[in-house]
Amino acid sequence: MPKKSLGQNFLRDNKILNNIVESGDILNNDTILEIGPGTGNLTEVILKKNPKRFIVIEKDKNLANLLKKKFNSKIEVINKDILDCYDKINFDMPIKVFGNLPYNISTKILTSFIKIENLKSKFEKFVFVFQKEVADRILAEENTKNFGRLSILTSWKTNKVKVMDIDPKYFFPKPKVWSSLLILTPRLKVEKFKNVKNLEHLTNIFFNQRRKMIKKPLKQLFKNYEKIAQDLDLDLNTRPQNITNKKYLELCKLYENLVK
Q1: Is the peptide bond before 175 cis (omega within 30 degrees of 0)?
Q2: Which pLDDT tens digit goes with each residue over 181-202?
Q3: Which of 45, 110, 195, 242 pairs as cysteine with 238 (C-beta 3.0–4.6 A)?
Q4: Domain spans of the chain?
C-alpha cells in the first residue's frame, strides 16, 4: 500500500506513462535516473527504451526490495532518500532524470538539483510530474499571482515547458488535486553567484510580504536602496511579482558585493 507519509501516489495509466517517457527522448546510450519509482510502473516503460544505464532511488525499503525482485539486474536500486544522495552518486554524465515526485518534498527535490554547480554538464533534462499548483508556481512569469521564489530560482538555471496536466483519476490512491508534467532543461549560460543562498535570501525577503511595495525589502537589503532602484529602473511603488527574473539576478549580484 502507498504510504501517505512519503507522499506516494502511483501513476497507473499506460497512455500517461508513455507520454512521460516519450517526453524524455531516451536513447540507448543514455544514463537514466528515476526518483521514487514506487511499484515500477514508469520504470517498466523506461526499460523498453533500453537505456545504457538505469538507476532508481527509492526511499521505501519494501518497495526497493520489490523493485530488485521485479527487475533484477536491469536496474540499479538505491534505497535512500534522494535528498541525502542526489549529489553523491557516481553517474555517467550527463543524465536524464525522471520522477513522479512525492507531493510533500517535490520543491525540495527540484531546488536541490537547481543549486548544483555546473548543472548543464551533469544533467541533460528533468522530466518531472508535480502537483499542478507547484507546477504553476514553477512556470509563472512576472506580473502574475503565482510568480515568486520558485519561478525565479528555476528560471535562473533552466528552460521550462509544460507537456500536459494529469487528472487525479490516473493515480492510486487518487489525490484531491491535478498534477502537471514538466520538462526542465538546464541552460547553457547562467549568471554566476558566489553562493546560491544569497539569491534564496534576497527572494525570501521580497516575497515574504509579496503584497507590499518593493521599497521595504530594498531598504532592508541595501542602505543606498534609492540609488539602486534608480540604477535598475525600479519603481519603488511596484510589488515583488512585478519585477522581472533578470532584475532579481541583477539585485543579487549587487547584494553579493555587500556580503562576505
Answers
A1: no
A2: 999 999 999 999 999 999 999 9
A3: 242
A4: 4-186, 196-256
